[in-house]
Design brief:
Blueprint lengths: L2 H10 L6 E7 L7 E9 L3 E9 L8 H21 L4 H4 L3 E2 L8 E2 L5 E6 L4 E2 L7 H17 L18 H14 L9 H8 L2 H12 L6 E3 L8 E4 L5 E4 L6 E3 L1 H12 L17 H14 L6 H5 L1 H21 L12 H18 L1 H9 L3
Antiparallel strand pairs: 1-2, 2-3, 3-6, 4-6, 5-6, 7-9, 8-11, 9-10
The structure holds adenosine-5'-diphosphate, 2-acetamido-2-deoxy-1-O-phosphono-alpha-D-glucopyranose and magnesium ion (MG).
Amino acid sequence: MNNKKILQEVISHFDFVGEIINACPYGSGHINDTYLLEYKIKHMGIVPIILQRMNTNVFKQPIQLMENILNVTDFLRKKIIQNGGDPERETLTVILNKSGKPYYQDSEGNYWRAYHFITCATGYDEVKSDEDFYQSALAFGRFQSLLADYPANTLHETIPDFHNTPARFHIFEEAVKKDICQRVQDVQKEIEFVYSHVEDTHILSDMQKKGILPLRVTHNDTKLNNVLIDDKTHQGICVIDLDTVMPGLAINDFGDSIRFGASTGAEDEKDLSKIECDMHLFEIYTKGFIKGCNKQLTDAEIKALPLGAKVMTLECGIRFLTDYLQGDTYFKTKYPTHNLDRCRTQFKLVSDMEKKWDIMNDIVKKHI
Ligand code: ADP
Ligand code: GN1
Ligand code: MG
């Protein structure tokens, strides 16, 4: 069935009101297929809706995943109301299908979900102002502090070993060995880079095992475009993309934001001379994240923030390289070497962080 027909089928199974006047692809996420729907409703004007085909290649248990999202957003909604906030804008609202389920499975077996669209807010693909970046840090930190007393044992693990860097390294080694696309010969430099950083891959899991870093309920995908910034107030109002909310390390949430937002270039920039980790942005994000976490971070966690940045960047580069070697089956790509370009920016950032290691540590030490 073609995409338009499937979309019509899906739309007819959700409890939307009004007349549909537009449906188009939306956003720049690497995982799900996102659509913006626009409904005309008498007396209300145009009402936008987010509709997503969940990526079941990545999320093998979409029903469990939606259970997590309903529970987490219900929990957040209560806290937001207690704190005098606006739950309609400060967390995602799931729209149920006509049989009362938080998803619809179409006739081809794909799983879909719908959310209220949060209007007058933007998920940025790059840092446009220091203040916006600071606000994104506050929002991701606050997200973690709001979930500090969430019953972690009730969360399904939506992607097993998601930020288990040693496991990611193992999958990479297998991909090199199998070389199913015969790409290994073209990426010797990148492969060597990974092998020269093997020690870094298990540094955080060792610290976690020793009890130096505690497991918390974390977001695990804290890219700048996963927080919506209010167009008028410029506050980071809503953390979105809740598919990977699972127990994890606070410093990984910090690190993932740094590798994306504190980079001086796009994640897929081809000209590596444009890629650096900006220390001014690193400092801004550090301040905002620590403040947002509301005194919950231990001194050991704060001290380890630079490590979180370096390891998350290394891990992400390894994931892009692995996907390139495996034939680009995980991340969405627009051209054949897209994952390789992404991998190269991550490795350039890791090298740059190594050069700036003392500066990064001095910045975080101010907050202990
Ligand atoms: P992916 O997992 O593919 O990254 P996301 O859930 O992050 O998918 O959604 C992709 C993009 O769609 C986001 O970056 C954001 O711009 C937009 N988006 C998602 N949900 C909403 C929402 N409820 N309101 C407004 N925009 C949204
Ligand atoms: C994916 O879904 P999105 O585009 O926000 C990925 C992250 C990566 C990121 C790299 C579930 O994030 O882990 O860091 O791409 N999400 C998943 O840009 O794998
Ligand atoms: Mg996203």
